[in-house]
């Protein structure tokens, strides 16, 4: 059985005792005596002299199923250009180093969400051997195993927790030895919390009085859009700022000396809700600026590294410290508090934050060994042979020109929708398909194709839907997508590194449309870039109707693309697009770009191709 936090503290005490006998460093496992100043209460009529003490709150976010420093899509150790490392096994080593330095009872460890989606490891225990299973043989979730063993004190819900449905996230919650928090994740029927809103942890800084640290968990209101099929009519997700304003006073009234918010929400990124929801997506900065009595915020959702951001609360003038560690266990945030005991309770004297890099330490073998059997099982699963490919298909140039690997996604989706609509009232409408370059390292090799090759091309748990749009609406859709490019005058030098991701548009919000032909004139301002738009060799009819095969994220409004969220829905499927792709390759046997690649779009400037 995995060790829990109590086992960790006990083991640390034993280690400290051994270190004392051998001359090593001693770490106290019992509550430590105050170190700042001697207690002179007796001499001063029991009036306690102010004392300063220190403790640390550590935080992770957007782990997305990473336990080991392993990439299941490449079947090799994780590697990137910056030499980062990923996974809880590395974070565990960092966290234990902080505990050894600060004192085990002076540290808390929390997370701000997106835990159970993102790798084939976690997909396997959601879909292949699902944890949301009745009976006596429910498998352990590897993220629960690792996080319990590491001694997490709390975690907030992320939006991706709901990708597999409410039963799966509830089953995950049941396996945790710490609370899964979501103050703004409410039952739809009565708007009461479906998860624990907050927890108050006692941290013993001396033998007399613990400091009470309140941890509030908040998740992203966008769940109502992005996972509409899983949560509609079952749960609602009100605003982050409004919910914090409701619960922070309750936590103070319940005795919390310190308030730390674990928020699955960025600091100051632009929203992607449009007019679909009244609340901003990335509201951690607004929350810090407007809700009194928050001391620190562990930020998540945006996959960015923010070592420290200081925001002054407009109502109190108090400085709030925010930190976001880089996703996937690449960084560990540390909020270092100094507190002072005065007037019968603890007050925050100072707080600062920093991030630690997981590539500086080895994996903790206790963590890696605890899930080794599950890891091997998943490695075998992803290395199944599913077909062959005539040539190598790379995604490397997919942001800049039409490529067979993106057209493969379009072809699979279009075929699935055509088959579903066959014989029905929409069977005669032309079917197009939306696709985006999700994974910049995706590659389907020449020769044998494994399951992990297809899974690496479509890394999200999206499902497939079909919506009806007109030719005019499709042009609007493409114009919106084309804002992905920075404007570049004709004749100006082309730098691929700065050409894309304009206005911080992520790759997954850059769609091409399979079945149409068009040019994107990047010398023009956004909104006026789509030229020569045609269907089957003729200019598109603005009034003609088309069926668009589209993933559920986009269909429900993700990315705020025009028209699609309100378009007529004619079909939907509950299986992941990834599985549809795998089944397509198995059925075909051979991937041959001649069967689907159309070279249908290009970047131009004043009619001249950029590439």
How is this structure best described in words?
Keywords: Hydrolase, Metal-binding, Multifunctional enzyme, Nucleotide-binding, Signal. Residues 386-565 form the 5'-Nucleotidase C-terminal domain. By secondary structure, the protein is of the alpha/beta class. It is built from 17 helices and 31 strands. Strand 11 (258-263), helix 9 (284-290) and strand 12 (296-299) form a beta-alpha-beta unit. The termini are far apart. Mean pLDDT is 91; it is low at 1-46.
Task: Provide a brief overview of the structure.
This protein has 611 residues and is an alpha/beta fold. Helix content is 27%, strand content 26%. The protein folds into two domains: 59-377, Purple Acid Phosphatase, chain A, domain 2 (4-Layer Sandwich), CATH 3.60.21.10; 384-609, Alpha-Beta Complex (5'-nucleotidase,  domain 2), CATH 3.90.780.10.
Provide key terms for this protein:
2 domains, 31 strands, 6-stranded mixed beta sheet, 5'-nucleotidase,  domain 2, globular, Purple Acid Phosphatase, chain A, domain 2, single chain, 17 helices, alpha/beta, disordered N terminus
- Low-pLDDT parts are 1-46
Tell me what portion of residues adopts beta-strand conformation: 25-35%
Fraction of residues in helices?
25-40%
CATH superfamily of the largest domain: Metallo-dependent phosphatases
Counting DSSP E segments of at least 2 residues, the number of strands comes to 31
Separation of the first and last Cα atoms = 57 Å
**Backbone CA Rg:** 26 Å
Q: Give the neighbour order of strands across the main sheet.
A: 6-5-4-1-15-16
**CATH architectural arrangement of the largest domain:** 4-Layer Sandwich
| CATH class identity of the largest domain | Alpha Beta
Class of secondary structure makeup? alpha/beta
Number of helices: 17
Outline: globular
Mean pLDDT: 91
- CATH-derived topology of the largest domain: Purple Acid Phosphatase, chain A, domain 2
Main beta sheet, described? 6 strands, mixed
InterPro entries: 5'-Nucleotdase_C (IPR008334), 5'-Nucleotdase_C_sf (IPR036907), 5'-Nucleotdase_CS (IPR006146), 5_nucleotidase/apyrase (IPR006179), Calcineurin-like_PHP (IPR004843), CpdB_N (IPR041827), Metallo-depent_PP-like (IPR029052), TAT_signal (IPR006311)
Main location: other
Subcellular location: Cell envelope
GO molecular function: 2',3'-cyclic-nucleotide 2'-phosphodiesterase activity; 3'-nucleotidase activity; metal ion binding; nucleotide binding
